[in-house]
Structure formats: C-alpha cells, structure tokens
Amino acid sequence: MGPTLNMRGSAIPRGLVRTSPETIGKGQGSMYNVAIEETYQDGQIIFKEGSSGDWVYIILSGSVEISKNVGGEKYIIEILRPGDVFGELGFIGGIRRTATARALGETTLGIIDREFLDEEFNKLSSQFRSILVAITHRFKKMLDRACDYTMRSEARIPKALSLMFKDRDTFIRAYTGNISAGGLFIKTENPLRPGTQFLLKLQLPGISHPLQIKCEVVWARKREGESSDKPPGMGVKFCEIAEKDYQLIKRYIAGLESG
Questions:
Q1: pTM for this model (two decimals)
Q2: Given 3-state DSSP classes, what are the helix, strand and coil percentages for the chain, each rounded to the nearest 5?
C-alpha cells in the first residue's frame, strides 16, 4: 500500500498513524487542529536542513532544538517548548527546510491538519497570499546571507587548486581562487546561478582521491572587461561534507597559514 496523501499530494511521514483531529490550545484564542501525533526520543531528527517537506508541527510535550550547519559547524538557533509551532516556512513558501529540527528528551509532536491549513490559507486573497510567500522567501535569503557572513569570518586563503563541478550531466574542470573551511571561489567563465546546488570534486595536494562536496552557489560574477582583480566565477558554500574531508580542508588551510 502506498503512502497516504493529503489534498495537496504530500505524503504523511512514515511511521505516523492518522488520528481524529483534536484541538490543542496555546493560551487564549490560539487553537490548532492536530491530525497526527508522533513521539520522538532524545536526539532523534525530526527533519534535516535542506530536506523537502511542508508539514507544520506543534510541540505537545518535550522540546525541539532548531539548528543550522554553517561551514561544517552546528549553530543552535533556538530551543522550542510546548505550544511552539515550527515548519511553517515550508508550508507557506514551499521551500526546503531552512534548519534541522531535533528532539531534546522524549518529545511528542502534533502535525497540524493540512485540510484545515489549506482551507484557512485559501481564504486569504491572492494578493495577501503572495505577500506571505514573498516574506518567506525574503526571510530565507536573509538567513542564508547571515550564515554566509558567519562563514566568511573564517580566513580565505588565495590558492589555485584543481577541481571539477557538475553542471547538469557534465563535469567541468576549473580552479579555485581562494578557499576557506566553509567555502571557496571557483574561477570559471560560466558560473552557475545563485542558489544552484551542485556536486564539487576538489583535489587537495597529497590526497590521492578528490573530496566530494555538495555545494550551493552564493553569488556569481561574469566577465567585466579585462579586470584581473575581479575574475569571472562564483562564490560557493559547502552544504554537505564528510567530517573527515572537512578536517582535511582545515588541516590544509592551517598548513598554508603557518607556511
């Protein structure tokens, strides 16, 4: 039997059992229709940063840690308590999860009934819905830029390293302009668009195999005349990197700084 679908076609998370909707309150005048409940044990991941999903959750008991990965380091954004709602950005803006949600202690969550949310959302005028979606996307962009600023606080070391990046079905050879533990600048005449995620193969000196890193383009620059101080290329951040590869990059950069 396939997964149960709601009216928008989203699958109910695996392992959940649909129950009759019940009303949960948080203070006066704030009520939620809960269709599904699930209990997580301490440390269990509810959803990961970058994953797809548009379910909206309310904490019935326990706590939830919201965190982001910035340059291979975990940054805790907030600790949510019973009555707090999270996951709303995915529902409103249709965007991927902007952070990781993890249970602290035994935690019971309610998934707010999607039919109720869809019905209430569709009662809004199309103009107001568009405003809410725009706010959601702008918030995500601001959050990404804040994380990029945090990563750029790490030293960027000018260094030309051989690499390949995947554009659709083709791997393109290029070189780095600089590198840090959280990202790098790729010199290329054909930069990808900001927001594009791609697979990078980076070759470090003395390492027999290339490091494979999932990256995202933060900004791109095309050729502007013959200015050598602003070569065409793209600044990228590391989204997913194996811990051993991250440590290899950190050691390599430390060696450049000390040498």
A1: 0.47
A2: 20, 40, 35
Q: What are phi and psi of 154, to 5 degrees?
A: -80, 150
Q: Where in the chain is the domain with CATH 2.60.120.10?
A: 17-150
Distance CA 28, CA 171 (A): 57
Exposure string of 101-132, with b = 16+ CB inside 10 Å and e = fewer, is bbbbeebebbbbbbeebeeeeeeeeeeeeeee
pLDDT for 193-227, tens place per residue? 888 889 999 999 988 899 999 998 888 887 765 55
Q: Could you tell me how far CA 43 lies from the centroid of its own chain?
A: 19
Considering just the CA atoms, what is the radius of gyration of the chain in Å? 22
Which residues make up the CATH 2.40.10.220 domain(s) of the chain? Answer: 157-258
The topology (CATH level 3) of 17-150 is: Jelly Rolls (2.60.120)
pLDDT in tens, 11-50: 444 434 344 445 444 442 246 778 889 999 999 999 998 8
Q: How far apart are CA 136 and CA 219, in angstroms?
A: 20
Options 2.40.160.60, 2.40.240.10, 3.30.1490.480, 2.40.10.220; which CATH number does 157-258 get? 2.40.10.220
